Amino acid sequence: MATILPPDPLATKFPSLGNLISQILPYVYVAAGLLLLVTLISGGVALMTAAGDAGKTKAGYGKITAGLIGFLIIFVSFFAVQIVEVLLGVKIL
Question: Is residue 1 pLDDT above 90, yes or no?
Answer without folding.
Answer: no
